[in-house]
Design a protein that fits this description.
Order of helices and strands: HEHHEHEHEHEHEEEHHHEEEEHEEHEH
Radius of gyration: 22 Å
Strand order of the largest sheet: 2-8-7-6-5-3-4
Number of domains: 2
Strand content: 5-15%
Oligomer: single chain
Distance between the termini: 37 Å
Number of strands: 15
Shape: globular
CATH architecture of the largest domain: 3-Layer(aba) Sandwich
Amino acid sequence: MSSRQGQLFAESLMEQIKSRFHYVDCDVDGRARLFFDNAGGSFRLKAASEAFARIDALPDCPERIHERARYLQDIQTRGEEDIRRIFNARDGSVYLSLTASAAMFEMVRAVMENVPGTNAVTTILEHPSSFDAMKLYCERTGKALRIAPSNAETGGIDADAIVSLIDDDTALLSVMYASNISGAKLDIAAIVERARARKPDLYIIVDAVQHAPHAVIDLQKTPVDGISFAPYKFFGCRGAGVAWLSERLAELPHHRLDAREKGVWELGSPAPAHFAVVSAIVDYVAWIGAQFSDAEDRRELLVKGMLRIEEHERALLSLLLDGVAGQRGLRAIDGVRVFWDHDDLTRRDLIAGIGFDGLDPTTAVRAYEERGVTVYERIATSLYSGRMLKSFRLDGAVRISPLHCHGPGDVARFLAVTEDLATASRA
């Protein structure tokens, strides 16, 4: 396969990759299952779960001087370094909160309450954690909220639609890296460059929760002020959201202990186990990178691993759309409509949205479950997807989101179930 269509992992490597995750082929009760809802959760790395349990079991407080406390401090330091490696961030502050959504609200609040301007810009496709934060703090600070519309054909947001809303009085741009509804990637590099050309000191915050597990992030190429991801969607554990803040954002007034330096956002005692989870994630991705590179630098191996994950997932998306092993793809199955479908797979994460001619999304999801497949319905009445779907003039969609630990056989099985559902719905 060409790069534009992706490249699958070798079968021998796929076996190793699958073995490193919990419950890829079977659920916790041992029943065979295809889990194609990784945009809502994600498979857990065994090493991440084990690292969390091992470190979290220790009763020691890391804010002490004894040996075990120093060990926990080292765990946290390594985790912070690995967070910076994920983002390729060289300064600024690392902040772990209970969820990525909580971190987003705090970053938006700090800018909106302390940076002058009469308006703020976001997009119609944002997750509620960022969209609602922008709406709330626009209301509290008297700023106008400008909302870029979606592109119904690509499932994304055009850069022009965003940049055209920015002017000298814009305090903040909050934008997502990729849609968790359609999988469409936004051109963050172009958006940042053009937005800063229009207003050089513009604050920019990026929600990378959906995109981080699927591709390389490089803040040296896309210099923003705040960015976040959720470890539980990145092969890790629930219970923490990760954010990086530029020096100028970190030093804006925020909730902090008075004795702390201005740029510190950490409140209370740190949880070293969550930092250990991030390091386990980076260990894993770097291990993949090492299968294709002789590099010794940890960031280089991470980048190589993420690039290969991206290539494999692009190949899976191609098979999902066009078929595999004699099984027709989504584009060719009678009674199935593929939403936001276009041929440039480099602009799409591994997500597809479909509709059935004879089934509503909720009924379809239940029918999939009866056949051992987990997918998710996005419907217009949902607080998590209604705004986005309405922008596409859709009442609902079945969202399909595999992960790189799936292979062509998994896609073929899913397509066979889908064709069976489509046939049954027309009978």
